[in-house]
Design brief:
heterodimer, A: two-stranded antiparallel ribbon, B: mainly alpha, Four Helix Bundle (Hemerythrin (Met), subunit A), 3 domains
């Protein structure tokens, strides 16, 4: 009965192991906690490959299908990269508090894993909160920095309001259908009622807050600017993917009768999010704020997949998740490395970076090209595929808009590249030496972006397998 | 107009007024007391709907527990007890616009819904032994969210500790 919960149970047990270990470690030996966390994540990733984790539990309210498992693997990879990138950061700046840092990251990961497996709104909500609450705390982890506190307060206020909205939406959904669970075999026809539409709008707004779609994106730049950078790399990817995971499952399985309504809302949301993210990124002078706004724009592109309302669109969104995960996390980790060396997040500290750190600037260039969508790194295929899906659904105008905005995006991405390679800078020429953990995590991201760009087929295959979970009467069997 | 309807309107009016008072009070302690009042009135609502258990829980947890804690915090924190809040009115116009838009959306969709009409027409089903039923379903059907909730509380406690604790300076032991 508990087999589908294997990953969650393993994570919980490991988490408490790390919790206990933290109590018995000397203040200056807590570095090992990061290494243990990383090992735990690798072990769970290994378990997730096994076939025996598939299935449903608790009368179908907890489902572990190929979609859930694929997303869980993405979360594990993202958390692993973040932990790897955090080891020297926590050792330097958060001394004595490493235990809480990793524990909260793992709590958040557990919440994501539960929430994408939920086929029942209350479980979904509880998992969602378990994901979100550690994020509020981690954003304010750098308590001495007023910006960090401000950012934490903003994400907290936005987060709680959206949670309240979600609860209201769940209540109305329950009033309309008489249940909070949904099954793939029976469509919820009761939703064809104004009450169903109301639930749809409120839930979409609640989820929109969480994935930071327009007009709920205000907290993003401030929170990213103040929070510890390796954590921002995690925050910018994993919770967003989790939010999309829920959107996909809930809208495609439960709200299927209302598909014609929500694709309409989703396409507007996608278009506005793309426009706002890209245009606001243009004047940014701080690398973290720039990446924050560009991240909002990417959310818009991913929403296109949902808006296309087809399995093809969802598959291409999953592909986009993979591309976004490696490119964006890589870019933030480079920002962390540069910050460590220069003490600033300003774009000017990137001037002539290639002289000081050739590997670092090459990696950053690769990530920027991928985020901008230049052939033949993975980001190019992601954009191409998502546009294909949208075009197939008939949104030619939106595709044109998206392509136009990609050109805008190239301007601000290549501006950073120009600073790194072309601009004449100040006299600072000392070589930047990278911490070991950061060079490995950045190296993994770079390799992934380049290799997957040369061989996108593998990811397409994974995406197709993930989405094959939808639209079957019995989606468990393999 | 029967007694039930009159009670409903009186309660609603009280609830709305006390909720507005929470937001507009310039002293923290008064806000807390009005919050207690609005939570208590919500409990009366539950009684009028025939959900006595829910009303009891509401009074125990919110009016009894949460509000007491809030009042404690206000009284124990130096200097905020009688402090005047200056910024309660800032941005009132956009807030009013947004909330009235939301309000009209809620009213429009519930007003036009046939489902709501049929729900309103149905008689409330009084369940005998509701607490037994509740505890059974809590520990059987809903045991997974319940267990996840305990992890959520643990995460919240750890998080609150992290944020509230005074950091040791380097060199202290």
């Amino acid at each position: 009965m508990f087999k589908p919960l294997t990953l969650e149970i393993a994570l919980t047990v490991g988490m408490f192991g790390i919790f206990l270990l933290d109590l018995f470690l000397d203040r200056h030996k807590k570095r090992v906690l990061g290494i243990f966390t990383l090992l735990l994540l690798i072990v769970i990733l290994g378990i997730s490959i096994s076939k025996s984790v598939y299935g449903t539990a608790f009368s179908g309210t907890f489902v572990s299908d190929s979609f859930a498992v694929t997303l869980k693997q993405l979360f594990l990879i993202a958390t692993g990269l973040a932990v790897l990138g955090s080891i020297s950061h926590t050792e330097k700046l958060l001394i004595g508090r490493e235990g809480e840092y990793y524990l909260l990251l793992l709590f958040s990961l557990l919440g994501m894993m539960i929430t994408v497996s939920a086929r029942e709104l209350l479980l979904l909500f509880v998992g969602f909160e378990l994901m979100s609450i550690p994020l509020y705390v981690l954003s304010g982890f750098d308590k001495g920095n007023p910006r960090s506190v401000e950012g934490a307060l903003k994400i907290f206020l936005f987060g709680t309001v959206s949670s309240a909205l979600l609860l209201l939406g769940i209540g109305i959904f329950f009033a309309a259908t008489g249940t909070t669970a949904w099954h793939t075999t029976r469509a919820l026809d009761e939703l064809n009622d104004p009450l169903g539409t109301l639930a749809l709008i409120i839930l979409l707004a609640g989820f929109g807050f969480k994935i930071a779609a327009f007009p709920f994106q205000f907290w993003v730049p401030d929170t990213y600017e103040g929070a510890p950078t390796p954590f921002v790399a995690f925050l910018s990817v994993a919770p967003k993917v989790a939010g999309f995971g829920i959107l996909f499952r809930f809208f495609f399985e439960a709200l299927e009768p209302l598909a014609s309504t929500w694709t309409l809302y989703a396409i507007w949301l996608a278009a506005l999010t793309m426009i706002v993210g890209n245009l606001l990124a243009l004047p940014q002078r701080n690398i973290k704020r720039l990446l924050a706004y560009s991240g909002i724009a990417h959310i818009g592109y991913m929403l296109l997949g949902l808006a296309s309302g087809s399995k093809f669109g969802l598959e291409m969104s999953v592909f986009y998740f993979v591309a976004y995960l490696f490119s964006n996390m890589g870019a933030f980790l480079v920002a962390e490395a540069v910050h460590r060396a220069t003490g600033s997040d300003d774009l000017d500290s990137y001037t002539r970076l290639y002289r000081r750190a050739p590997f670092l600037s090459l990696a950053m260039l690769v990530f920027l090209l991928s985020l901008g969508g230049i052939p033949f790194v993975i980001g190019f295929w992601a954009k191409l595929y998502i546009f294909l899906a949208a075009a197939e659904a008939g949104y030619i105008f939106i595709v044109l808009l998206g392509a136009l905005l990609t050109v805008v995006a190239l301007f601000y991405y290549l501006n950073v590249a120009r600073k790194m390679y072309i601009d004449e800078g100040s006299g600072e020429n000392s070589f930047i030496s990278l911490p070991f953990d950061l060079s490995i995590s950045i190296g993994i991201c770079t390799l992934a972006v380049v290799l997957l760009g040369l061989y996108p087929k593998g990811i397409v295959w994974i995406a197709i397998k993930a989405i094959s979970a939808f639209g079957q009467s019995n989606p468990i069997i393999h | 107009m029967n007694g039930e309807t009159i009670a409903f309107w009186v309660l609603s009016l009280g609830l709305v007024v006390s909720s507005i008072a929470v937001v507009f009070s310039k002293r923290l302690l008064r806000s807390a007391i009005f919050l207690a009042l609005s939570l208590l009135l919500t409990a009366f609502f539950y009684i009028s709907f025939g959900a006595e258990l829910l009303a009891g829980i509401q009074i125990l947890l919110y009016t009894g527990g949460v509000i007491t804690l809030i009042v404690f915090v206000i009284l124990l924190t130096e200097g905020i007890e009688m402090k005047k809040l200056e910024e309660t009115h800032r941005g009132i116009v956009p807030a009013l616009l947004a909330s009235s838009l939301f309000f009209f959306m809620l009213v429009y969709y519930t007003w036009t819904s046939p489902k709501v009409r049929s729900l309103a027409a149905s008689t409330p089903s009084s369940k005998f032994n509701v607490s037994k039923f509740l505890s059974e379903s809590l520990f059987q059907e809903w045991v997974l969210p319940f267990e996840v909730l305990s992890l959520l509380l643990l995460a919240a406690i750890v998080g609150a500790l992290v944020l509230a604790r005074r950091e040791r300076k380097e060199g202290e032991t």
